[in-house]
Amino acid sequence: MAVDSLTPPVEGPAFSPGLEGVPATHSAICDIDGRQGLLTYRGYTVGDLVGQSSFLETAYLLIWGELPTAAELRAFEHEVQMHRRVSFRIRDMMKSFPSQGHPMDALQASAASLGLFYSRRALDNPEYIVGAVVRLLAKIPTMVAAFQLIRKGQDPIQPRDDLPYAANFLYMLTEREPDPMAARIFDACLILHAEHSLNASTFSARVTASTLTDPYAVVASAVGTLAGPLHGGANEDVLTMLEEIGSEDRVEAWLDQAIASKQKIMGFGHREYKVKDPRAVILQKLAEELFDRFGHDPLYDLARRLEQAAATRLGPKGIYPNVDFYSGLVYRKLGIPEDLFTPIFAIARTAGWLAHWKEQLGANRIYRPSQIYTGASGRDWMPLQAR
Ligand code: CMC
Fold this sequence. Notes:
CATH 1.10.230.10; mainly alpha; 3% strand; Citrate Synthase, domain 1; binds carboxymethyl coenzyme *A
């Protein structure tokens, strides 16, 4: 029996598929105005943070609620830097992962494995909270970079203490110190992906947090949720889609056919935004900066043509490019393999997940929604021979 959208159960509130419009928590971390295309973290616009801040400063803001003083930021950066290395046991475990496995699966397994190494569930101890925040922010990038080298048959390289967060990640990935402009743009990408209110992976993080399990399980469950193509996995699919379209003159016919067959256009649409995602606007500018410096990418022209063609066809339904539409083009120009796009999203979003973990603990009640039962009842059990 199908249950219609908003069918009221016999008692209780109306059912909303995908929980659309259902508030599931109070939160002071991030606000989205989907009609104006405005995104703020703790009251600061994401554009201001990209222009003025660094990813680690933004992570501090998200998690602790205020911008750090210079001394607080120095201490936080230092702590994160001190915890970047991962145990040889984790590296050895990663060496046994299949090299053709997806890096998101490798990340989910390695994030969960941190729980084996660090003491569990001292959730009422502020030092434990700080330690977990620092470790997760510090080690997730190291684990993403380690799997990239391991699957190529190489040993992971150690983090460089003299490099800031974003530059160090690119260094661990490519074994080359990155161009400062590339590192700055990558850091901006991390800021743009750091938080986005109660999206699927953050909801998953809060549900897991509400059971009072350890923070490594919280982040591991969120990584698994982010991996899907309707969520973080879309950034990888955008490039595949652009490559499949192939050339600008094919855009309109491809799009008409895709819409007619009810295919989702990857990198378009958002539950919250009914205009172009403000992060897509900024990412597009960052992509153009990169192209000016390092050379043009013809896929960008194709992407812009697709955006134009989609404006008349999908715009009236409030479907515009989201964050994933231009991020892949930026990462591609930075020389990052396509299947690392979503793990990079996870590196950034770890800041948001941790902010929500901490907020959830501050006013916790376990999540346990209800359901509308649609199955059979009152059936008589039938012996095996009689079925
Ligand atoms: N292409 C074509 N039509 C679309 C698209 C799209 N990308 N997105 C939504 N629609 C249509 C959909 O077919 C439906 O039409 P109708 O009412 O005629 O049946 C209507 O818009 C509502 O769609 P929905 O799937 O019910 O909307 P939702 O709020 O449940 O889903 C979404 C939001 C992001 C999952 C969806 O827009 C989508 O699948 N987009 C493509 C995947 C993507 O780019 N995901 C990244 C999201 S942003 C980053 C992140 O959160 O990770």
